[in-house]
Amino acid sequence: MPKGQVREVLAELGLMKNQQDFGSVSCVSVVLHHLLKELPIEIVSSNALQMLHLIEFSKDNSFDQHMNYRLLGFRLNERKTSVDIVIAVLDKIIQVVAQYDSLDEYLKVVDAYADLILQNQLGNLLNTILEGISQRALNKGVTEAEMPSLQSLLGKILSHFKCLEDVLCLNHFPEILDVLFGSSQDVVYLHILNLATRNERIRDPLSIQLLFEISRTLHDNIEAKNVKDDSQVAHSISHFVHMVDYGAEMEQQLAFLVDCRGAFSRFNELKETLVHSSNSLAIQALKCAKKHLSLVKACITFSEVTIPSISAQSKQFDHFLETAEVAFLVGLVSHSDGLIDSAIGCLQTLNTTDGLQTPAEVEGLVSSIRKLCGFLVMVPGTHFPNNLFSLISSHSWFEPKMKTQIFSSILLLLTSLAQKSLPYHADTQIPGNDLLFYGDSSYKQELVSLSKLVLENLLGAIQQEPSR
Q1: Minimal CA–CA distance to 328: which of 278, 275, 282?
Q2: Residue 152, pLDDT score
């Protein structure tokens, strides 16, 4: 809008005069709405109080008055306005919205001024508008049409604060959360989860309980809607579970993981987090004192029971192997043997349609199998290398390149086991094969026989490589 026209408009509205009484100045509401849209922001900002008076005295059927109050709020956010003006405008707005019975009108106006309140750290005004929302929601309930404005307002509040505890301390905030529903509830709850897990570990029991309930609601909403892409929610809930820390109360930590397994059965990523967390807890318990051996066993059993519910066989393999390593580290050899058997069993039912569509995923599986070979150097006995070789050689979907890498690792494993002293041992009382089969010629002969078979198959796989 040219400057000359701006001056004419301001003069016509009485804004060029030093008027104290605006009662005689009015404007058709719809015209005022378009003027507020088109006037340069510096004019709107410097004449904000006068604009408020114009809106107050321009009440007709051409346009809803509260929408002009709302528009003025959004315009004032376009540039930094004098703090004195902002406070004066906000004081007037609070007086205006206090007269509204409609929650919809109340929300639409206060949402427009929320950023000004937060940026100027006017906590008393923030508590005032939250109280106003709570009262109107309690009296008349909340409709679906009011959800977008409520979602927008709560989103601004959550974005402003860096600590969830500060948000929860706001008067009426928790009770306002209870009136949310639908997609707006999902958006706000997800925002709360992300805020809570942004920085430090979560240790406060009340915060943990609130976030658990929020996570359960998100999970159940996805279940009810049968949403296919649930990755964002799954990741946020998994991160929340990872960040919870009960400190020395390790039994309570494991009980929390059990509750999460029951509450969030849909998410594979969450199940993987639970296994990692349980295994980490087992190691943590082992470091504390021997009296925690029962807890260590409970953690390993928890992981062992949880892993089969993970849908991808390749992921199951990784987690069985991880848990087997933990069990072996704490001296539970029988548990470890069973978990290794389960890991190799995953390869029995695995095929290229099981999430191995990309070269990176195939390489990941090969890397995990090679990791197993490195672990088996410490594990007593020779049946695992034999079983692994038999399985890989009998499955046609293992391509020549994969077989070449895996057979090479098995051959290295066998040559390590054939040494008089193993290259490394577990830091436990579990004896290695070098002690168990010391001077046993049949053991040596078994290794030699298996090595010949592996070498023959390795050469055969190399011959099948497209580029040798």
Answers
A1: 282
A2: 97
Residue 273 CB neighbours (<10 A): 22
Beta bridge partners of residue 63, listed in sequence order: 60
Interatomic CA distance for residues 31 and 80, integer angstroms:
26
The packing angle between helices 205-225 and 182-196, to 10°, is 140
Is 336:369 a contact under the CB 8 Å cutoff? no
pLDDT in tens, 251-283: 999 999 999 999 998 899 999 999 999 999 999
Distance CA 58, CA 69 (A): 11
DSSP character at residue 167: H
Count of helix runs (H) and strand runs (E) in the chain: 24, 0
Q: Interhelix angle for 383-394 vs 441-464, to 10°?
A: 20
User: Any idea which of 156-160, 239-243, 311-315 has the lowest mean pLDDT?
Assistant: 311-315
What's the N-to-C CA distance of the chain in angstroms? 74
Cβ-contact 256, 300 below 8 angstroms:
no
